């Protein structure tokens, strides 16, 4: 089973003149490898997968997997700034891929195609729109886990799917040998604490403002869209908290709160893309129905990007 602890980046999909910008995507993968993040999530909701056709999704995943291998084989620096020997090789960043849908059979077929790839796991939300009963949700996830050669990370995000993964459902699914973790976006402290205390699923904060609380309670980490910018600070926060340096962790988190709030002031991933674009990493492009941030928020993001402290 994979270890999903640490700070994970749910990668955006950069666009240039309407097409996927694979050069920018490669640069981002290298950037986050150098920052010391735990891993990457490809084709999660932050990556706008609903606007990508099947060939584009396949190409995006292929670029990410190839770029993480290239980053592992290229001399760089550790997060502390220490140079690595040119002959050294870093461990390739683990990659989790998002798999979405509301038809169990077609999702099983998609998972079968992913089984041959070197993935750390699959991130899967409840079936959207259909809003099945909890028994149907259990059967759905168990069928997908049975079809997968990779560990599954559950994605509990009822504001997108229309249905919650209830605690009893999650505890039932935790018994499956290939269901290993959860991206926790339901906003229920009771559920978060119950899962952490149960101990069978690694709990990762999916709402970025809950990162500090989740880690302090014993959670494994976070999948944080806001960590696209200044990822080293999020890694430092994680390390401080897991090492028991609470005062340092609190200071780091408080400093990150304005960034996190701006990253979600308008629908994700528009603020993240605007911030990265203002600093030359990507173009500020999204695909409809997603649109660029408002001019007022863009100005605040530019100011954030100019801060050096």
From TrEMBL:
<dbReference type="InterPro" id="IPR020625">
    <property type="entry name" value="Schiff_base-form_aldolases_AS"/>
</dbReference>
<dbReference type="GO" id="GO:0005829">
    <property type="term" value="C:cytosol"/>
</dbReference>
<dbReference type="GO" id="GO:0009089">
    <property type="term" value="P:lysine biosynthetic process via diaminopimelate"/>
</dbReference>
<feature type="binding site">
    <location>
        <position position="223"/>
    </location>
    <ligand>
        <name>pyruvate</name>
    </ligand>
</feature>
<feature type="active site" description="Proton donor/acceptor">
    <location>
        <position position="155"/>
    </location>
</feature>
<keyword id="KW-0028">Amino-acid biosynthesis</keyword>
<feature type="binding site">
    <location>
        <position position="46"/>
    </location>
    <ligand>
        <name>pyruvate</name>
    </ligand>
</feature>
<dbReference type="GO" id="GO:0008840">
    <property type="term" value="F:4-hydroxy-tetrahydrodipicolinate synthase activity"/>
</dbReference>
<dbReference type="InterPro" id="IPR013785">
    <property type="entry name" value="Aldolase_TIM"/>
</dbReference>
<keyword id="KW-0456">Lyase</keyword>
<comment type="subunit">
    <text>Homotetramer; dimer of dimers.</text>
</comment>
<keyword id="KW-0220">Diaminopimelate biosynthesis</keyword>
<feature type="site" description="Part of a proton relay during catalysis">
    <location>
        <position position="129"/>
    </location>
</feature>
<dbReference type="GO" id="GO:0019877">
    <property type="term" value="P:diaminopimelate biosynthetic process"/>
</dbReference>
<comment type="function">
    <text>Catalyzes the condensation of (S)-aspartate-beta-semialdehyde [(S)-ASA] and pyruvate to 4-hydroxy-tetrahydrodipicolinate (HTPA).</text>
</comment>
<feature type="active site" description="Schiff-base intermediate with substrate">
    <location>
        <position position="183"/>
    </location>
</feature>
<dbReference type="InterPro" id="IPR005263">
    <property type="entry name" value="DapA"/>
</dbReference>
<keyword id="KW-0457">Lysine biosynthesis</keyword>
<comment type="pathway">
    <text>Amino-acid biosynthesis; L-lysine biosynthesis via DAP pathway; (S)-tetrahydrodipicolinate from L-aspartate: step 3/4.</text>
</comment>
<protein>
    <recommendedName>
        <fullName>4-hydroxy-tetrahydrodipicolinate synthase</fullName>
        <ecNumber>4.3.3.7</ecNumber>
    </recommendedName>
</protein>
<feature type="site" description="Part of a proton relay during catalysis">
    <location>
        <position position="45"/>
    </location>
</feature>
<comment type="similarity">
    <text>Belongs to the DapA family.</text>
</comment>
<keyword id="KW-0704">Schiff base</keyword>
<dbReference type="InterPro" id="IPR002220">
    <property type="entry name" value="DapA-like"/>
</dbReference>
<keyword id="KW-0963">Cytoplasm</keyword>
<dbReference type="Pfam" id="PF00701">
    <property type="entry name" value="DHDPS"/>
</dbReference>
């Amino acid at each position: 089973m994979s270890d999903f602890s640490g700070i994970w980046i749910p990668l955006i999909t950069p666009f240039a003149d309407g097409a996927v910008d694979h050069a920018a995507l490669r640069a981002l993968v290298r950037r986050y490898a150098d920052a010391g993040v735990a891993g990457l999530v490809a084709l999660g909701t932050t990556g706008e997968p609903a606007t990508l056709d099947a060939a584009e999704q396949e190409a995006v995943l292929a670029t990410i997997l190839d770029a993480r291998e290239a980053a592992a084989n290229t001399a760089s620096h550790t997060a502390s700034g220490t140079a690595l020997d040119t002959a050294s090789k870093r461990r390739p960043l683990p990659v989790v891929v998002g798999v979405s849908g509301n038809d169990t059979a077609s999702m099983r077929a998609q998972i079968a195609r992913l089984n041959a790839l070197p993935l750390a796991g699959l991130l899967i939300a409840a079936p959207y729109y259909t809003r099945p009963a909890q028994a149907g949700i259990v059967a759905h996830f168990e069928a997908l886990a049975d079809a997968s050669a990779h560990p599954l990370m559950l994605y509990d995000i009822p504001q997108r799917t229309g249905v919650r993964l209830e605690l009893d459902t999650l505890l039932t699914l935790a018994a499956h040998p290939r269901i290993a973790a959860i991206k926790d976006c339901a906003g229920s402290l009771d559920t978060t604490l119950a899962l952490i205390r149960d101990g069978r699923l690694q709990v990762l904060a999916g709402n970025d403002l809950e990162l500090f609380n989740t880690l302090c309670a014993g959670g494994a980490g976070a999948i944080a869209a806001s960590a696209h910018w200044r990822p080293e600070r999020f890694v430092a926060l994680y390390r401080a908290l897991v090492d028991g340096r609470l005062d340092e962790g609190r200071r780091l988190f408080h400093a990150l709160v304005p960034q996190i709030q701006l990253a979600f002031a308008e629908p994700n991933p528009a603020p993240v893309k605007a911030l990265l674009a203002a600093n030359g990493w990507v173009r500020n492009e999204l695909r409809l129905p997603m649109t660029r941030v408002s001019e007022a928020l863009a100005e605040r993001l530019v100011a954030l990007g100019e801060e050096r402290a």
